Amino acid sequence: MSEPVTLTIDGKEVTVPLGTTIYQAAQQAGIDIPIICYHPHLTANGLCRICSVEVKGWRVQAAACVTPCADGMEVHTRSEDVICGRRTILELLASTVNLEEAPEILALLKEYKADPERFAEGEQRTAPLYDDNPFYIRDYNQCINCWRCVQVCAEDAQYTFALTFNGRGFHTQIGTFMGLPMPDTTCVFCGQCVGVCPTGALKPKRQALLEQGLDPDEIFRQTRRKRKQRQNA
Amino acid sequence: MNESNKPIDLSLLQPVLQKYEGQQRDALLPLLHEAQAIYGWLPREVQEAIGRTLHVPLAEIHGVIEFYTMFYNQPTARRVIRVCEDPACQLRGAQTVMRALERELGLTHGQTSADGAVTYEHVPCLGMCEHAPCALNGDKPAGNLTPELISAFLAGTHPEPSARVYGGPFYMLGRVGKVNPVSLADYEAHGGYRALKKAVAQTPEEVITAVEQSRIVGRGGAMFPTGRKWRFTRAAAGAVKHIVVNADESEPGTFKDRVLLEEDPFAVVEAATLAGYAVGAERGWIFVRGEYPRAFARLQTAVQQARAAGYLGRNVLGKAGFHFDIKVRLGAGAYICGEETALFEAIEGKRGFPRIKPPFPTTHGLFQQPTAINNVETLVAALVAFDMGVTAWRQHGTEQSPGTKLFCLSGHVTRPGVYEVPFGLTVRELIEMAGGVKDGRSLQAILMGGAAGVFITPDSLDMPLTYEDARATGVPLGSGVIMLFDETADLRHTLYQLAHFFAHESCGKCFPCQLGTQRQMEILHRITHNGGVRAGDRQALLDIGLTMTETSLCGLGQTAASAILSALKQWPELVPEDIA
């Protein structure tokens, strides 16, 4: 174990190995910090900022998932500004994408008394439903840009590089090279992107068909036929 | 036949691809630029050929093209007319120029003519605010446009604007307008390379100490002590180190670096070389924003001439072991790339997403190697201070802010331009030096530091322009922007324009900025142009502002509400709390 550092989180003293993040230290101390984009097996990019906390003496808040602990740090995870930031981020998200199938985020909206209608007059980030292969469908109306799918498709796991970003800023959306259908990309249909998607934007095709009320035989016929078509192509 | 259906003649690209054969991903932006110069845009076949040459996944190339507004994956003309839409130009008649251009071309924003000859765009600040309203006709800059000048502008016969520099004493601007910017001999005749020769006669540590004692801090807006940055980078472990010149000047209202780059490019090259010597870095990079084609061309010329004369390359100035060379890189339309880590990503051939700090560039910068990245003016200030000596430098300005500083005066001011003045002048004195408010009108507001800065009222005009006062008052000097708004200016509309700028330029990485800049813009748009203030608007803007400021990943998001929050505080009536 590397040299230990001691900090306080919400007044509670915690000792952790050097290199531990504030988020990990808080977990160790039994203090809850909310997360959305963070996934323990993937590179943390500090995107959603819902885990932002106050560190005494710092100019701005710190994203707990990517900020390493330092000796003597004084962290506050539930100050007024921290709560305001979390609530606002949730309200912004709720006004942008469909969170129906993101139970963890819906629970956070409740916990932080966020008003999902607060920015309802704003533009929503919409996209057509991409149903272009027999394995999974992509509904970016539910995508929060957590990057997990892009990361597992690239250096975090598969080195397939089928996924990328369209646009910039608010209009950033996950996509493929020149918008090609997935079978025409480098995708190997490993399914890892589907596995890490937190909002149901990526969904197994069979699950989607089951949800539509199709019986398993029909689902098998549909997905198998498409596979054959591809072989013949 | 539709442009997109025309077969793409890849043989035109072959000579370019051969030139880049064997190069890595950091050649992606230059190669995309060269390919686009051939075709006007980047068709799928061209992207595939580039991917094969540089061994970059196609999805990644697509993502890069999508990120930078000056790269096109849809049919676009070789000649793009870009008209500035930001406040400094709007204050001086950009709207009428846009209307006249649209009438003349028969095009609106984003459209390409039927014959494929010209594309028309409204773009963020072009960094020519002293020549407002301004535009680019392809690579040709034009300023002080009026509807009457449109024909000459489109024909390319409207003369290019020349530098407007005022103030004094002139140190950083000393050669501007006097030296031939594409002649090394003329640069040498005007004192060029005197400082570098002086430096190599000393140890790198002595050079760093001199820069520390000159008390120069980062002039892009971050105010980090330059000497300390160089010392950290020198001390960092690693055989390969970099000097990066941040010439991605894109802060609305800022044009000082452009004047240095265009009018005295050798000074930037010499200053980077001096930094390379001090830091022990062998690799230099100058990253110029895509909207500065003239600066880019002159820098390339300067680097070539300097290399031919032995001022770059191996054993510079005959000093054994002092190796330093420079690559000039051109951006492609992304304000975020002025953020130092986003700039590294751009040089590396990626989308300009800012990185999480720490680690800091001094240990993990370009290619994860130790890097000193400095703003153009900062480097030139260090060069000037080192050349004249610390004692002489510190005779100007104040104890805490010695020397001179470049300020960019624009908007409703009589003589807009770059002003080099000693630190310590008040805002009032500077405005008086610039001939006061245009047409003798009364002053309503001043935007200090740029879009990421703050508004002050005419009551604060006696504030001295120093770093110590900036820290004490919370009014940033930023990139030296001082933009004047007279009594006729519609400040609500200006707030909307600033919000629009940030929404356009947010990279889309972190949630608060990506979503907050959009909602901030929408609320201000409705307030200004579509229905007025509603109950809850003020609190919504305050909450979005706090969230972006406190939780955004980088400096863009952290300052994307700065000017707007300052205006809400100074003029509560702009967005009142209580709606009758």
Give a quick set of tags describing it:
heterodimer; A: alpha+beta; Ubiquitin-like (UB roll); 2 domains; 5-stranded mixed beta sheet; 3-stranded antiparallel beta sheet; 7 helices; globular; B: 580 residues; alpha/beta; Glutaredoxin; Rossmann fold; 6-stranded mixed beta sheet; 24 helices
How would you characterize this protein structure?
The complex is a heterodimer of chains A (233) and B (580). Chain A has 233 residues and is of the alpha+beta class. Chain A has 2 domains: 4-78, Ubiquitin-like (UB roll), CATH 3.10.20; 129-232, Alpha-Beta Plaits (2-Layer Sandwich), CATH 3.30.70.20. Chain A has 7 helices and 10 strands. In chain A, the strands form 3 sheets. A 5-stranded mixed beta sheet of chain A has the order 2-1-5-3-4, with helices on both faces. Chain A is globular and about 60 Å long. With 580 residues, chain B is of the alpha/beta class. In chain B, strands 6-12-11-15-13-14 form a 6-stranded mixed beta sheet, with helices on both faces. Chain B has a 5-stranded mixed beta sheet with strand order 2-3-1-4-5, with helices on one face. In chain B, strands 9-8-7-10 form a 4-stranded parallel beta sheet, with helices on both faces. Chain B is globular, with a radius of gyration of 23 Å. The relative contact order of chain B is 0.10. The chains are: A alpha+beta (233), B alpha/beta (580). The interface between A and B is large, with 49 and 47 residues.
In short:
The complex is a heterodimer of chains A (233) and B (580). Helix content of chain A is 29%, strand content 15%.
